[in-house]
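Sharing in case it's useful to others searching the archive later.

Someone asked me privately for the predicted structure of ATP-binding cassette domain-containing protein, so I'm posting the question and my answer publicly. Question first, with the sequence:
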Amino acid sequence: MMLEKKRILSCENLWIGYDNKPIVKDFNLEIYEGDYITVIGENGVGKSTLIKTILGLLTPISGRVIKDMKGKGGIGYLPQQTRVQRDFPASVYEVVISGFLNRANKRPFYSLAEKKEAMKNMDLLRILDLKNKCYRELSGGQQQRVLLARALCASNHFLVLDEPVSGLDPEAAKDLYSNLKEINEKRNMAILMISHDIQNALVQADKVLHMKKDSWYLELGGKKDETFI
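And my answer, the predicted structure tokens:
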């Protein structure tokens, strides 16, 4: 008997944009444990605006985002890196464990459990041997795995990624996709990922959210889900 998946986030009748001017209208989406959703579409159709709204960085014009992740941490976010961020002068361990900052409730220290989890996440991403290395000395692929380990410290239930393989060579991108699939399947973590890498996006995800100007639709395993149109 298959257990029913728990819903962790809902977007209900969202109108989102800037200065009260909507980019996306009447948007509805439900995200469940273990979902792997890739968001694709041309620039300017509202992909990043949607992500910012889900993260709580942008207030919707109307509608609401409902989060049901009590006791499960918040949302682990892997944004696109700037040049300044790539040159951050901290150790790998310091970057990874900083993912707990929003979960620390203003504590001036990290708990033993958090330290152990940080080590576990680094081991999962195969960067444990780099823990004392300076972050800015790493390759692009290694930096992305460090940031992914940090995102896992921020949440044990839901990851949001914005173009995670942008700027990576094919081999590093392949490794990162493998990491994401392992996290999705072994930890039952929901993943929502913006990507222009359509070929791999279609292979990786079990759901694909197509966003266009003034419209959008969701595909489930290659089949359009008519309930969300």
